[in-house]
Amino acid sequence: MRVPSYLKQVQMGSPGGGRTREEPIAVKLSEEQIAQVLKEKEIRAALGRPVKRIIRDEWGEIILEVGDLITHKAVLRARQAGVLDVLLSSVYRRKSQPSLNT
After folding, report:
1. Which of 33, 42, 75, 82 allows an S-S link to 29, with CB 3.0 to 4.6 Å?
2. At residue 20, does pLDDT exceed 70?
3. Is 60 helix (H, G, I), strand (E, B) or coil?
4. Is the pTM of this model over 0.85?
């Protein structure tokens, strides 16, 4: 269920649901924190999508076969094996279909 924007403002403590006069607090993130946030976003986008290649751990055991869907467990195993970047670069993303309206 979507929450209307005026209710979000009330939930966030804005009096009367309107704008506050206080300036928003600026949050400074380190490069490492930004990289971590971006990696987590990439992982969330990959979850539930199939892979284009076999993903193996450092002992050669298969984590995911071609076409297997990426799960939280697979991400955890890939992270532990140091092959998370390989897994994320092997996500199948459907190419956009050409428009039929010409």
Report:
1. 33
2. no
3. coil
4. no
